[in-house]
Structure formats: structure tokens, C-alpha cells
Amino acid sequence: MKKNLFALLAALLTALPALACPLCAKNQPKGFANITHGAGPGGPFDYVMLYGSIVVVVLTMGLFVRFLLRPEGHRNQARRKHLSFT
């Protein structure tokens, strides 16, 4: 299990060279240079949307890892007890 998790992490980290081209990196705002292609955030609402989506993705990934490593819990056992079809 730990070997698979390490292999997944290594695969994700090797994807970092696939970043923005030099022209797009030059045109991006200071904090976002070399991350994506395009013009970057245009106003304050764009930054709120960007940081909000980052928070949602990080929380989702954290919950995914938590339930992947420990799928059993007292809530699941209670549901299983009430939903048994035998």
C-alpha cells in the first residue's frame, strides 16, 4: 500500500515540468508566473474564485486520502447494521 502511494506521489511530482511556456510565464502576474497559460486573473473576483477553488480541491483531496487510508468508521458500521438485507 505504501509503495503504491509513494509511486502515485512520484508520478504527480514528475508532472511539474508541464508548466506554462516562456511567453505566458512572462505575461502572468508575479505570483502566478509559470503556472498556467493565458492572461491570468484579471480582477479581485478572479482571485477570490481562484483561492476558493484551491481550498475546495485541497479539502477534497484531504478527505479522499483520509477515507482511502481508513475506510471503516463507526458511521459506516451503523449504516451497515441498519441496512442489512439478511
Automatic annotation (TrEMBL):
Domain of life according to the entry: Bacteria
Keywords from the UniProt entry: Membrane, Signal, Transmembrane, Transmembrane helix
Region forming the signal peptide: 1-20
Membrane-crossing residue ranges in chain numbering: 48-69
Protein name as catalogued: CcmD family protein
Organism: Hymenobacter artigasi
